[in-house]
User: Fold this.
Amino acid sequence: MPEAGLLSVLPINEFVFFINKVVIGGLIIGSVYALGAIGVTLILGILRFAHFPHGDMMTAGAFFALVCASLAPHVGDPFGLPSAFVLMPVAMAATAAMAVWLDKAFYAPLRRANVKPVVMVMSSVGVMLMLQGLIRLFAGTGTRQLDPGPKDIYRIPAGGRDLIVTQPQLLLFIFTAVAVVALHFFLTRSRMGKAMRAVADNAELARVSGISIDHVVRTTWIIAGALAAAGGTLLALDVTFKADLSFNIILPVFAAAIVGGVGHPYGAVVGGMLVGFTETLAVFNWSVLLRPLQPYLPEFVEIPSKIAFVPTEYKIVIPFFILIAVLIWRPTGIFKGRTN
Amino acid sequence: MAVPPLAHREIPLFAGLAVVIALVFAWLGAAYGVRMLVEASCYAIIALGLTIQWGYAGLFNVGVMGFIALAAFVTVLVSFPVNAAFWNGDGPALLGWTALYLVIGVAITYGLSRSHRLGLPKSLRTALTLIAGAVTYLAVQGTLDPAASVIESEAGFIGGFGLPVWFGWLVGGVAAGGLGWVMGRITLGLRADYMAIATLGISEIVKAFLKNADWLTRGTLTVSPLPWPVPTPQELGFVFSRSAYLCVTAAMIVVIYVLLQRAWASPWGRMMRAIRDNELSAAAMGKDINRRRLEMFVIGNVIIGIGGAALITFTSIFDPSAFAPLNHTFLIWVMVILGGAGNNLGAIFGAFLVYVIWIMSEPVALFLFQQAEIWGDELFGWQAPGDLHTRALQMRVFIIGLTITLVLRYAPQGLIPEKVMKHD
Assistant:
């Protein structure tokens, strides 16, 4: 059969490997970054400061989910889902409440004293250290499994090698899509969502036209906290729960928020995906894709065993360079966010 | 110009500090006490650098650790004894090729980025620049990888140049300042938070690089013993050699302090205060705000680098994975804001006070948690988790964060506030 011959020539296995590694991997990490970056971009747009504890808020959300799941380990069984996912709304509510309380205790007094934005940033760094200390005190410094059972793995045959998606990854994609659509309708249709956009555009004007800034600020923290908890929980479900995630995740999240344009939730989603895909593309070993071409190349061209743009150890460099590139060429981000 | 009189605040504060230090000497012995003083004095130098950035210019540098790590590495490179195995092997030639590729590539990339002056369309220029940059990167990476593995197998790492230590500190400070210049050029015109994010990023990258570039730094194998500028403990004994080191760092503090006080009283210092207190009116008077801020950031980083290099030299071991943001960034932040931002004496006082508390807090935290474990076991039959020891130390992170937020809220001026000069 000529078709079969053609198929065997095409590097279908390698291509599926590429999709597994880069496309699915990028979607996973991009979704997590997006869930974090939505909160960061809303806080940057409405409260006007870079919220450093966001990574620790994600970890705290995952920790709440871990506690819930260990208290009620069999809640998820009737649905065939991990208990931590079924109980995630509880963790989201707890993290949202924590975010509102943190604002009341630490940021609101500074806001009332009308300090410079950079002092707010510094105070947020203080809060970051406190959260880090508490999380490590209660959760320990090791890694833990959020879901003790084996993960369900879906294999999609693709002629040769299978496309592989695990259940937590599928849940992550679905949740991110639902959250983004819901946020879109909230921001464009509801009164509160419109008020939030008004405050982000011009806080003074919004205030004199009768919008309660306090309500807007509280809603911002609730959304940011809930989405951060979801992102942290879903990441921990996919990989493991680690208490010292914060620095490794806060930089890509900031990069995603700034790339997307500060104050634009959709921009944050695009930015998150951009950063996630760049990361997986940059550390991907391209020689896997090129190796099947070896028989067709002349003798002296030898494909090295490893061609990656960035070694895996330097993954942290990628979001940083995206950030620097955006700050140099287009400080407003893709979607023209605010710069002041 | 009326200089405000020496306030009645400094004398009791410094006297109290002296009493605390004397207690530590009496309790833990002279060798330990002198070691603590040397480390605190290095932190005081770093705090002076940071107070320039934060107290004078209002710049938020979250990457202190990265600048210290870079300066410390440069010091090791300059002052560590020459590694003959490296210079006699193939490593230098291979590295030379890498450097050649790098120079040619950078020159071509830079030339292309200027090519719009020759009439090339801007989009074409950008595309060509990006391609040239990518090719340079791949070429350098392609030649560096084999060079690195040859060096690692032949000689371990490239060693140093065997030059005097003080020269290494200076070069380290200059390197930290240079990195600060690049960071400042990119972020200073933008909103203040971006600088914080960018400095956080650069410090993580410096750490990742130093940890993984085994051919350059021996990575996790660490480099030791680092040469000292004064006779080592093997020659003089702990107390005397550490005291000699303390003399060196104390002299550095005095020199830097006097220079900063002079600069602060000069027209240049007046301009800096004007920019910090009212950016708009300073700009209206024709001051180039971003350029002045860049000056502050670079000078601050040079001092941070020198202090950091002195600190790492004193510990006598260069361990890239020991550069923790907690010890090298946020502890120094607490020193500066608690001591009093914008007051050099305050920064020095804060450095000594916070460092003594920090050193003493470790046994205290462990003791408290052990007590909690015993009581919990007796009263409730509570089984403490096995890693309570490491967890107890996490409480110090919490305390540092709490101190930062509380000081910012209730005492933004610090213990020794900045003295506002009145010009009659």
Chain A touches chain B through 51 residues (CB under 8 Å). Confidence is low (pLDDT under 50) at residues 1-6 of chain A. Residues 12-46 of chain A form the longest helix (35 residues).
